[in-house]
Design a protein that fits this description.
Number of strands: 18
Structural class: alpha+beta
Largest sheet: 5 strands, antiparallel
Shape: globular
Low-confidence stretches: 1-36, 126-138
Distance between the termini: 32 Å
Strand order of the largest sheet: 2-1-6-5-4
Strand content: 25-35%
Radius of gyration: 23 Å
């Protein structure tokens, strides 16, 4: 079971308040737009009932994780700061003092037109969502941006769904056939896992502790990868296999960007060919680094690597400054969804904490 494909880019709602003024307005920035899915809940209820029956008969393992909400809030604000910086630089808006303070982002924009321009740029990032007016009053120009409760709740829901998808994928890779992975508790910040017949839960949690390794690496063309594999690869490189084929790639060991630089990833279809793809978007830091790397390596290939396999190796045609891209590779839609999920899962374990793991004996006849 996988999470439903997302139909629009990651979105983040923020409230923008100016300290010298009286009015506060809500505008929109990218965040995940996952609606409640009644069919998904019904499917989960059926799976839970089936697995519960198996647990009574066979016994098994019960594992509970909890989302690190403090760490999540911190990452939301960090992404917000990076997005604001990106928009300021692109709009050539003069500013000073951009910093994270008291759970929000603060900066000074002395020019009224500059504040209005930033407001428009932030609002325009909310494609597909209702636009909201932004009130900016005259004053000392100090602007404070704070994620709203709605934004935090949406991001939390997104993280839980991504974590469930990641756990299900890891269980599938580990050969576990029977399992129930469900959001748990009234606040739904816990994830409960039931594994009928599995009597060593610590072996399963060890699988989840391993982070998905996401890397964007440059490809070395100095020698053929087959030659490097049979001999000694150039210093600082290694040979990796392809994701779907037997092709070999000689790539740099060090990544120029990694999973922590990705703010969104989801499945979709290429506009020209309609083939399934995985699209992704970097945060502000990743956007700047990717723009620099692509500018310095035009006409050279680079590899997108997931857990030691090259899923795509495109040629850099021009500097990529927009902070987003697409990954194609003759994927099925399910494979594109899995690739997107793995891209999102690159930093997930840092937001999950193990609460408990126990062996549940079978019910007595």
């Amino acid at each position: 079971m996988t999470t439903p494909p997302r139909d629009c880019a990651t979105r983040l709602f923020i409230a923008l308040a100016v300290t010298a003024g009286i009015m506060t307005s809500v505008i929109a920035l990218p965040r995940a737009a996952l609606a409640e899915d009644g069919q998904l809940d019904k499917m989960r209820a059926k799976i839970s009932a089936f697995i519960g029956d198996k647990m009574e008969k066979l016994g098994g393992s019960r594992i509970v994780y909890k989302v690190d909400t403090d760490g999540l809030r911190e990452s939301v604000v960090t992404d917000l700061r990076d997005d604001v910086y990106k928009n300021l630089r692109e709009g050539k808006i003069a500013f000073s003092g951009l910093a994270i303070r008291d759970g929000g982002v603060e900066l000074k924009i002395a020019d009224v037109k500059g504040r209005e321009q930033l407001a428009r740029k932030l609002a325009s990032a909310a494609e597909g969502l209702p636009s909201h007016a932004l009130a900016v009053t005259d004053g000392d120009g100090l602007v404070r941006l704070v994620p709203t409760n709605a934004a935090s709740a949406a991001r939390l829901h997104e993280l839980v769904e991504d974590a469930i998808a990641m756990i299900e994928q890891r269980l599938k890779e580990a050969g576990v056939q029977l399992a129930s992975v469900q959001p748990d508790g009234t606040d739904r910040i816990r994830i409960r896992i039931f594994l009928p017949g599995v009597m060593e839960p610590e072996r399963v949690t060890a699988v989840f502790a391993r982070r998905v390794k996401v890397g964007f690496r440059l490809i070395d063309l100095s020698v053929p990868p087959e030659q490097a594999q049979s001999g000694t690869p150039p210093a600082g490189t290694e040979v990796l296999p392809g994701f779907k084929d037997k092709s070999l790639y000689l790539v740099a060991k060090d990544s120029v960007l990694d999973g922590d630089d990705i703010s969104y990833a989801g499945p979709g279809f290429a506009s020209a060919t309609k083939e399934p793809i995985a699209s992704f978007r970097f945060n502000g830091r990743g956007t700047r680094r990717f723009a620099h790397i692509t500018e310095e390596n035009i006409a050279k290939p680079f590899a997108i690597v997931l857990d030691g396999k090259v899923i795509s190796a495109p040629i850099i045609r021009e500097p990529i400054t927009g902070g987003s891209g697409q990954i194609s590779g003759n994927f099925t839609l399910e494979e594109a969804n899995s690739v997107a999920m793995l891209l999102r899962a690159g930093s997930l374990p840092g937001h999950l904490g193990l609460v408990e793991q126990e062996v549940v004996p079978p019910a007595k006849p």
